[in-house]
UniProtKB/TrEMBL annotation:
Function: Catalyzes two reactions in de novo purine nucleotide biosynthesis. Catalyzes the breakdown of 5-aminoimidazole- (N-succinylocarboxamide) ribotide (SAICAR or 2-[5-amino-1-(5-phospho-beta-D-ribosyl)imidazole-4-carboxamido]succinate) to 5-aminoimidazole-4-carboxamide ribotide (AICAR or 5-amino-1-(5-phospho-beta-D-ribosyl)imidazole-4-carboxamide) and fumarate, and of adenylosuccinate (ADS or N(6)-(1,2-dicarboxyethyl)-AMP) to adenosine monophosphate (AMP) and fumarate.
Protein name as annotated: Adenylosuccinate lyase
Species this chain originates from: Bifidobacterium simiarum
InterPro entries xref list: Fumarase/histidase_N, Fumarate_lyase_CS, Fumarate_lyase_fam, Fumarate_lyase_N, L-Aspartase-like, PurB_bact, PurB_C
GO BP terms: IMP biosynthetic process
Superkingdom of origin: Bacteria
One GO molecular-function entry: N6-(1,2-dicarboxyethyl)AMP AMP-lyase (fumarate-forming) activity
Pathway it works in: Purine metabolism; AMP biosynthesis via de novo pathway; AMP from IMP: step 2/2; Purine metabolism; IMP biosynthesis via de novo pathway; 5-amino-1-(5-phospho-D-ribosyl)imidazole-4-carboxamide from 5-amino-1-(5-phospho-D-ribosyl)imidazole-4-carboxylate: step 2/2
UniProt keyword terms in alphabetical order: Lyase, Purine biosynthesis
Amino acid sequence: MKLTDISPAIALSPLDGRYHKQTAELTEYMSEPALNRERLHVEVEWMILLANGMGNGPIVGGVKPFTDEEIEYLRAIPENFGAEGIAQMAAHEAVTHHDVKAVEYYIDDLLDKAPETLGADTQLPHIKQLVHFACTSEDINNLSYALCIKQAVENVWTPAAEQIVNHLAEKAEQYKDKAMLSLTHGQPATPTTLGKELSVYVYRLRRQLKKIADQEYLGKINGATGTFGAHLAAYPDVDWIAVSREFVETRMGLTWNPLTTQIESHDWQAELYSTISHVNRILHNLCVDVWMYISRGVFAQVPVKGATGSSTMPHKVNPIRFENAEANFEISCSLLETLAATLVESRWQRDLTDSTTQRNIGVGLGYSLLALNNLMGGLNSIHPNDIVISRELDENWEVLGEPIQTAMRAAALEGRKGMDKPYEKVKELMRGHSISKQDVESFIATLDFDEATAKRLTELTPATYTGIASKLVDFD
């Protein structure tokens, strides 16, 4: 049997198959039916503005202001767009071979049916020429995409990202005093605290999420080449700039773009996708760090009852959540960065390359959302391994070479004797040797420190040499 013969159709993309549950929320905003619903919304609201004006009567002639009942009927068109409507619109597109024209004809169908709900006196069946009036397809598309993307980012992607950040912030506060050995270049280095290291990610991520929260979503409605040519040909006395601005800003809730070709220039999309990709890469860095902490034993994983770690090695608990998150962040970045690079270009006043690329915005967001889901699951399954953390600190007393040689430099500046070449003396003692607490104390005792400094250095341990790491958590 051919898999293509099975009904309902088998999903080609894993986002719509294996991972459907984790990404289904985006369907509400980034699917083709969601786009068509917003197209209906834009078309209907444009009709209402043209008929009812901006407080001083209709903008176009031959139309009476819509009644409250007529406005309610029109706004119900996108609100009630469901399975039947999707099939009906698809039937129109099969004939028109043009997606926005199919939207226009779908509205025409419902205008014809208006008397069944509003009575024979309604004007709606007679004002079909108001549908898509003076518009090019991109007037509808750019606004519809902006609304879809804005809702998807604000209602789905951002809450998932914020859940990660809030979790990290909570753990940073919980572990702000938990000392741990640092590794720079993979080698033992100045100790830090687990909380401070988590706070680094919180700070980085919050900067990017603020950019996303402040992101402008631009829109335009100005005709075939952005000149309002058709608008003025029909109604030369109308202030179409004011009408356009009112529609984009007040009716659509977007930022008005006054200067475009046939398409809105997509610069805001490039900005948004670049920032989301940046978030992906920061979180990819977190995945790698945590994976290595698990490998090192700093984090322990909580086994899932009944789950298989390895198909042949029963003892293993593989960090698959973090590995899956890594891979999906990478796929998301590749898509979003391609979109950011290509959407800002268009040949002269219009080419169609953005039509197919924009249909993959939901895929780029979907892989990021899937990665966020995996990462959250992974973070919920780990906890610090206190035994390993303490052992690492206790086995690396050589990290106290830094504070000792720095204190020697300070003493030399104050004129104390025997403090020359502090770096070299500490290096001779500690590099390439196994150093104990006693070795450190004996070395300090040979130096001419004042009593307070000698006491402070002698009392220092790898676990207490964390500077103000715990206080830095408050800056996240």
